[in-house]
Automatic annotation (TrEMBL):
Ranges for region Disordered: 1-30
EC category: hydrolase
Signal peptide extent: none
Cofactor(s) annotated in UniProt: Mn(2+)
Protein name: protein-serine/threonine phosphatase
Record keywords: Hydrolase, Manganese, Metal-binding, Repeat, TPR repeat
Family from the record: Belongs to the PPP phosphatase family. PP-5 (PP-T) subfamily.
Domain Serine/threonine specific protein phosphatases: 209-485
Repeat region (TPR), residues: 33-66
Molecular function terms from GO: metal ion binding; protein serine/threonine phosphatase activity
Xref: Pfam families: Metallophos, PPP5
Active site positions, chain numbering: 309 (proton donor/acceptor)
EC numbers, comma separated: 3.1.3.16
Amino acid sequence: MSSAAEEANHKPETPVAAGQENTSEENPLQAKADELGVRGNEFFKEQNYEQAIALYTEAIETCPNERFYANRSFAHFRTESYGYALSDADKAISMKNSYTKAYYRRAAALMALGKFKKALADLEFVAKRCPSAKDAQDKYTECKKMVNKIAFEKAISVQHQEKSVEKMCRDLEFATIEDDYTGPKLENGKVTLEFMENLLEWYKKQNKLHKNFAYRILCDMETLLKTQPSLVEITVPDEQKFTVCGDIHGQFYDLLHIFEINGLPSPTNPYLFNGDFVDRGSFSVECIFTLFGFKLLYPNHFFLARGNHESFNMNQLYGFTGEVVSKYSQNMADMFTLVYNWLPLCHLINKKVLVMHGGLFSKDNVSLDDLRTIDRNCQPPEEGLMCELLWSDPHPLPGRVPSKRGVGIQFGPDVTEAFLKYNNLDYIIRSHEVKAEGYEVDHNGKCITVFSAPNYCDQMKNLGAFITLKGNDLTPKFTTYADSPHPSIRPMAYAYSLMS
């Protein structure tokens, strides 16, 4: 594989491969499909992945070809629909089992799902077929290292789990707070409003909170979260505003913008942040300590739900672990893993609106009591209620279908309606998906998605949004906003090398 071929692995393939130059002239359907493929590639280059997918799909329906499946796999990968990306790569390989690029695409989807052992087999195939391609050899080597690393960490995971954050804090020898440290300081070990206001300004100037205070916040968060149920009930007074935010994904300067336009959290301005606080964006440390700080300051007026990215595997792949290690230490990264295990899984507002990060379930008649009894102190499983709360997505057609992500399910309007009726609820709010306007209303107004990271990963050009409602009027109101300027640190700067 030449250097040009290496580069081709990072973009869609052109419709007519070497040796096929006259195929289109001989086959009008192939000519039409190739033209659709070219148009799909143009949309892909413009990062309009949904339109690219639509054109690749039309090309496949016109004249199926492994190249269109591989290109559509790549577009699905870019929209984080890893299950669809995997399926298309499988289809391309079934059509041509020597098609190297399809193995490359399948490996990428498998790695995104944390299935490194399966990805390694595909990368080994690519590396053997392309012995002179540095990119292929490097990815095979890195993936092999990750497989060995995961095996080692599993072997010692029992020892890690036996250590609570509190014990880890006691084991630490805290450094003396240096005389020249002028940043925010806890007062008698506690978060205050002054501390939070100073912290926001401190972070805005790209400074780091002293590790002494960072560790204390983590210890106090574990203590607090252990007292929380898996389903938290929230009572909003009649005339009080309540705000629900979706994914933040390490975009700290956009988090600041939310507070600028909607006000800082307070007992009279309560918030719920609905998971995926970290990863992808490269200011995840700043985001998480801001959110944890407000939770400690206002434990009964500021709420945090677990997302699928508050987990060990996702943090390893998408940047949070690397960022914590860079700014603090591996020990602190381990502490975050343990604290995340105690985050609540869903919230019930005034007994009528259920809020979760992902979505609904693969079986009927799931009750709120079923959600209350979930034992959440673990890494998210690959199936079951906890998995689906964190991973599932709505889709427009009735019934249930396999997830586009490869984890959880997709559920239709009839599933939503039945769940709401069974539990006497009005509607659900969830996050988990980028939306062009920052939000989307589906399933006859009964399933609402809110996503609060505008211009996600500095490339999606979407707006961010948050929802406000009142205790005596649970009708959701949407506020949208564009992205805010941030320091020139690219998204995924701390991500695992195979994913960045």
